[in-house]
Records
---
Amino acid sequence: MLTPVECLALEPALQLDASELVGGIFTASEQVGDCAAFCEGLTFRLRRQRNVEWLLGMDVIGPVRSGGRLVAVDTSKGQVQADRFVLCMGAASSTFARACGFYLPIYPLKGYSITVAPASGAPVLRHSVTDMERKLVFAPLARDAHTAIRIAGIADLERNNTTIDARRVDILRRASAKLLCIDTAGDVEPWCGLRPMTPDSRPIIGWSPLDGLFINSGHGMLGWTLACGSARMTADMIDRKPSQSGAGAFALRRAA
Ligand SMILES: Cc1cc2nc3c(=O)[nH]c(=O)nc-3n(C[C@H](O)[C@H](O)[C@H](O)COP(=O)(O)OP(=O)(O)OC[C@H]3O[C@@H](n4cnc5c(N)ncnc54)[C@H](O)[C@@H]3O)c2cc1C
């Protein structure tokens, strides 16, 4: 636990007076990464392995069942058959589950981010900073020649609407200008996405009631953080490797 003065000494990029802070919690193990760069790197590795087939630019329309088992999915470019399927359609996972005949408690929670450049000569943001009162996160992102700042937050209950509302972007822009020294005249690179939320904020990882369909979805606001661990658990469970300790905590039918 840090005092306001200790917070400002640790993170000089914050343009605040110590009297505006009550204090902070510093987690030395916390890390920041660029999820787009991570996905590009992962794609590069998988392409080199040559045992992955990419079927891009097609919509999954619905399940194809035979004898109580999922045997294929209908897509905008025809059927795709497989022995086993993993349901990981983000906030749209519950719609697919409904078509498969079961209820999946995953709801879209819309959030926004902007990516801005710091004002020239301003101290560089060095840590991921969470403003608990505004419920916003400020994180440094290494770009080619400089460090950009990504500001993320906001939770709107809007079913499957991914249009960017300029008023929500403005909230992030104003908060960034208050807390950090940013280049307000520059481009703010707005983005919005739907967090696939579950009622208890834990993902759902496990076999579905429909044979042949495994669920790895509902990671809410921590989908990237949890991605590799969830993928490991998914692969092990499908391979029927010894059960993961705590796997029951992520099952569809878990105790509340
Ligand atoms: C503003 C914001 C900030 C965030 N910050 C963080 C963070 O700092 N750290 C963190 O860990 N997480 C963060 N998250 C959460 C993270 O983005 C999500 O948890 C994560 O993206 C969920 O991954 P997913 O693969 O389950 O779903 P998605 O990323 O939603 O991917 C689902 C995919 O399925 C595809 N799909 C859906 N329906 C169909 C269909 N019918 N046919 C074909 N394809 C389909 C979609 O196009 C999409 O590509 C943030 C989210 C938001 C909105």
---
Amino acid sequence: MNPRMITIARESRGLTQINLASRADIPQATLSKAENGFAELSTERLQAIADVLDYPVELFDWPDPVYGFGSSAFHHRKQQSLGQTTLKQVQANMNLLVGRLRRLSEGIDIAAPFRLPVLDIDEHTPEEIARILRAAWMLPMGPVHNVVAAIEAAGGLVLRRDLGSPRFTAISIRPPGSRPTFILNRGLPPDRERFTLTHECGHLVMHEIPRDEAEREADRFAAEFLMPAAEIQPSLANVDLAKAADLKRYWKTSMSSLIRRARDLDVITERRYTSLMVQLSQRGYTKKEPVDLPLEESTVVDAMVRIHTEQHGYSDARLAKVVSLKTREFNAEFTPPRRGGLRVVR
Ligand SMILES: [Zn+2]
């Protein structure tokens, strides 16, 4: 048994030690000692804990290290204002997801033609790094048609999960020995998802070590990656809302980020910028912009599950066991829609 896994499993369900101990009918002192590695729990008590937490008891044997958020969440002021319990829960769920993905990818060879490098932010500006990455990934000029596909081609995994609070937009982590992993909070509009994913990508490329300017740098990276200055600058002249909507269709970035880009590149004055932002707000576009973009599907995790079920002959129940989830939760979290649409039951 790995004591840390009991803590992670408990936190992932948002329970305190007191909650869990009383529901599993164990003295809290015993649970506390067990979580700190000072006491072994009997098989019956471990099972009682597993039942309350609704996990298979094998989860407590995972030897996995537990990671913190790293650079990507280090400077998010909004995230820092979240309660400790929520933060712990999100961190626990992130660790469990990383462990599940590592287990799911075992024995599966999905080639990634590119990689997500680490580049020295003291040697280059964020804009230079964005251009280096576009070149390294051989992205053509113009808009990045599919950010998720570009990240997956560089070996990254992209998942959408409920992160428990709208204050989280995404978490990115580069677990040692595993693929870079991006967890998007469910429900973001596609233009926000694209910018957020690119921003997180910037963190993983530039901010191995956290630094004060990290947030602004990740935004600058994302703006240049999605809207390269040299290409977009001329088309931003005289931008108004109608033009921003047209540009959004082409560049697949939000109208507000295009207007921001026009200001940052000094194509419009501060006054014009403020006026356009007021217009966006008056029309309700700060809540929901016009021009819907298609959602970018992630494919690699679904492909892993399909290879296990369709080629390796794993049942859902067996695969659930591999990642230490009950089958119902595994299906909710991982099972992709079966190819061909209809699934014959029984
Ligand atoms: Zn950030």
